[in-house]
Amino acid sequence: MRLAIIGGTGVKREQLLSEVKDKTIRTPFGEAHVLEGRVGATDVLFLSRHGAGHKLPPHAINYRANIWALREMGCQAIVATAAVGSLRTAWEPGTFVIVDSFLDFTHGRASTFFTGEDGRVVHQDMTYPYCETLRNILLHAARQQQAPVREHGCYVCTNGPRYETAAEVRAFALLGGDIVGMTGIPEVVLARELGLCYATVALVTNLGAGLQPNRLMHQDVETLMRQSAPVLTTILENSIPAIAQTECHSC
Ligand code: HPA
Fold this sequence. Notes:
single chain; alpha/beta; Rossmann fold; 11-stranded mixed β-sheet; 29% helix; 28% strand; binds hypoxanthine
């Protein structure tokens, strides 16, 4: 499958790609900036979620343009990375999570391709939003690195850009959430609407608000991402050839 990496906070093109070409893709939803490059011997697309220089906050990302552009470029599978807070003290910073479900607390985002403007009403199945084929490949690669990894995890998506209150973190955990971030939705939803395989490898960068004594700082998130970047990069590098060679008949 032709695949794309969507790099979240702390994942940089230089860590992963060689022979890079910048492309600007026009879509019905606006422009997207996609890189074409190689990881080892495999051609991949790369999209930096927050844009060059980490300038776009989570609610301002043009998720529809991004996913549409990747599909236009022939992408069939997307592996996304995500920096997340943990809702459980046992899921410590440095833990990888191969996400398998989500709870959506976003609002005001353009979160569907099925707007009804074409006179069609479409309800997309979302029972199991993340591709099992990709999840298994990522899990295998993480275990090979002997990285601390959780095979299952429910991602709570908040609107941000603020972090949560301690009460929200307690509530999200009671609802069944395991980790919290700000960008997973609508990305996965849009990929499902276009029939693309999509998986997220999340990295716990901090305990959620109130689970640790300190206030949350974006700098701390970046510091942990920097420390874990080599392992994350290796997980991606080792997954990419396997994804390129595989087929999925479920998504
Ligand atoms: N909350 C929301 N998003 C995040 C967090 C968090 O604690 N850490 C990294 N991204």
